Amino acid sequence: MTVDHIPSVADRRGSAPAPGPVTSRPHTSIATRRHRAFYMFASPWIIGFALLTIAPMAYALWLSFTTFDGISPRWHYVGFGNYRELFSDSQTWKSLGRTGLFAITSVPLSSIAGLGLAVLVNRPLKARGLFRTLLYLPAVVPPVGAGIAFKQLFDQNSGAANGVLNVFGIDALGWLADPYARYVLIMTVLWTAGNIMIISLAGLQDIPRELLEAARIDGASAWRSFRSITVPLLSPVLLFQTVTGVIASVQTIMPLLLAPDPTPAGITALPQSNYLYMMHVFAEYFAFGRYGYASALLWVLFVLILVATGLIFKATSGVVFYNVDPEAKK
Prior knowledge:
- It is a multi-pass membrane protein.
- The chain crosses the membrane at residues 37-62, 100-121, 133-150, 183-204, 233-254, 291-313.
- The protein is mainly alpha-helical.
- It has 15 helices and no strands.
- It has helices at 9-15, 30-63, 81-87, 90-121, 128-136, 143-153, 160-167, 181-191, 193-205, 209-217, 222-233, 235-250, 254-257, 277-287, 291-315.
- The longest helix is centred in the N-terminal third of the chain and has 34 residues, at 30-63.
- The protein is globular and about 75 Å long.
């Protein structure tokens, strides 16, 4: 081959096949991947919330418009008939009033007891960790176990409470009957004050020591420092405890655990002072088989809890102090 027949570089490039289109993988932003990771990790809770909360609530809402009794297929749609009966039922209003009185009594007492215990174990005491553990232990006892223990403790015939009274020559009292049953119920709430103690203790340890030291140097007494510094800085914790305490108190089933006969047949024989709203719901469900009416009672309670929570937030909007870092707002 001579030099004249050697193809040039340009000829070789021109004769080569044209390259095909370059394909690239779609670019996924960091934000998109974070969103996917969030929903992947949150999906078990979301699915559980939908199946175990939203679906039962929707089913209960549907039941509240029917006369379903849980067994018979003969039921019919009654619209707002259950709700109209509810508002004209004197037993509903009486049980709701007892529940409100119980909440107004038990929530402040448990909050004060829990805060007092937190202040006590926050001091530099010997074996402070042991005291914290012992005071918190009752809070981890299951409610059913605590109810059975209190029922045996205050039994009129063989309870330890009447045994102590007999030592001092006092006749045995019917603790689980009127008018003492309400006091036993409040004792069961105070029994779990260790839970509030732990939350209050965390709030106390979050208060800057510089503020307390400055108040002490200025001559403020311990009570003045507690009232003017500790309580305002603990106000978000106290608000949380108030809201959760109100919700828990109106939903308590402890009167049923303290009942002499905790069965559907014996629920109507509860002491009147302990016949709270949830006991009325339980009786309508399982003693009388009125699933539709009981579901209406539960939905009214749900709305009342929302209203009560909103009123609490509205009433405390000007007295709750949130210690927010100014840099966190940017």
